[in-house]
């Protein structure tokens, strides 16, 4: 009888089992690798310098920085409205 060590609890279990008898973690290597690859796809990336700068504007107590942040948010909203209208127009008039 072949036994393998569980990667979670460290107990030795029968290699023919799909899940550990102690902690119910999958013992199949392909499944484990697929899960790890899936989690790597959704890891958060480090924020850019621009995002950090916007965050510092938002958290500032300076009224000028807060006004600048509000103005930037307004222009972003207008930009996204224009892009949304263009996309809507393309789909509406093409079909």
Please characterize this protein's 3D structure.
By secondary structure, this protein is mostly helical. It has two domains: 3-41, no CATH class; 49-94, no CATH class. Helices cover 58% and strands 6% of the residues. It is built from three helices and two strands.
Let me know the average pLDDT. 85
> How many whole angstroms does the radius of gyration measure?
26 Å
Bulk shape = elongated
Strand content: 5-15%
SSE arrangement:
Blueprint: E1 3-5, E2 12-14, H1 29-41, H2 49-58, H3 63-94
Antiparallel strand pairs: 1-2
Summarize the structure in short.
By secondary structure, the protein is mainly α. It has helices at residues 29-41, 49-58, 63-94; strands at 3-5, 12-14. A two-stranded antiparallel ribbon has the order 1-2.
Pick out its properties:
elongated, 6% strand, 95 residues, 3 helices, single chain, 2 domains, mainly alpha
């Amino acid at each position: 009888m072949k036994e393998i060590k569980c990667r979670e609890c460290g107990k030795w279990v029968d290699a023919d089992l799909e899940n550990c008898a102690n902690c119910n973690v999958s013992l199949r290597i392909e499944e484990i690798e697929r899960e790890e690859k899936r989690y790597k796809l959704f890891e958060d990336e480090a924020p850019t310098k621009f995002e950090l700068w916007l965050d510092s504007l938002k958290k500032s107590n300076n009224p000028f920085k807060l006004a600048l942040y509000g103005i930037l948010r307004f222009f972003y909203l207008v930009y996204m409205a224009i892009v949304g209208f263009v996309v809507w127009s393309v789909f509406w008039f093409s079909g």
